[in-house]
Amino acid sequence: MANGHRTQVKRARNAVKDTRPHAKLTYARIPVQKAAFVMDAIRGKDVATAIGILQYNPRYASSVILKLLNSAVANAENNLGMSTANLYVAECSASNGPIMKRIQPRAQGRAYRIFKRMSNLYITLDERKEEKEETAKEEPAKEETAKAE
User: Fold this and answer.
1) 76, exposed or middle or buried, with CB in 10 Å at 0-12, 13-18, 19+?
2) Burial class (CB in 10 A: 0-12, 13-18, 19+), 23
3) What DSSP character marks residue 112?
4) Which tens digits make up the pLDDT trace of 77-126?
5) What pLDDT, in 10s, does the model give residues 29-64?
6) Which class for 34: exposed (0-12), middle (13-18), buried (19 or more C-beta within 10 A)?
7) Dihedral of alpha carbons 46, 52, 58, 62, sign
8) Strand, coil or helix: what is 70?
9) What DSSP string runs through 13-61?
């Protein structure tokens, strides 16, 4: 084999594994275009804001994506021990799934095709770095050195 033994391949794959919390929904009965519109609204937002956006969005896709986001948050808390306060939506995407093809009878013996599209939805969360707290810790240290002089 060109890549080596299967255990070597697995070790190499696990070495570069993404450890961020994520959730995936396959075969969602939503067209990709409609799901992507809602995903664009929450990309980069913190979890609390994203949940608020999804709860008050009138689109059907938002209810499905809300369940997926809650699943990703639960994965972060239970599997990785992360705090929900620091989480934000790092990546979210929708890709094409299979298409169910149906037929609608029409006049004069004709038939129209109806495509019932599905999509695969992905959400990846990440933890924000506490920049404000780090700078706040550095400032009192500078003030103490100034008082000592």
Assistant:
1) buried
2) buried
3) E
4) 999 888 899 999 999 999 999 999 999 999 999 999 999 999 999 999 99
5) 999 999 999 999 999 999 999 999 999 999 999 999
6) middle
7) positive
8) helix
9) HHHT---S-EEEEEEESS-HHHHHHHHHHHTT-BHHHHHHHHHT--SHH
- H-helix or E-strand spanning residue 108: none
Domains defined along the chain, listed by start: 20-148 (3.90.470.10)
Let me know the angle formed at the C-alpha of 90 by 88 and 96, rounded to the nearest 5 degrees: 125
Decide if 94 contacts 120 (C-beta within 8 A). Answer: yes
Within 10 angstroms of residue 51's Cβ, the number of other Cβ atoms is: 17
CA-nearest of 57, 74, 55 to 125 is 74
Spatial distance between the Cα atoms of 20 and 102, rounded to a whole number of angstroms: 39
**b/e burial code for range 54-69 (CB count within 10 A of at least 16 → b):** beebeeebbebbbebb
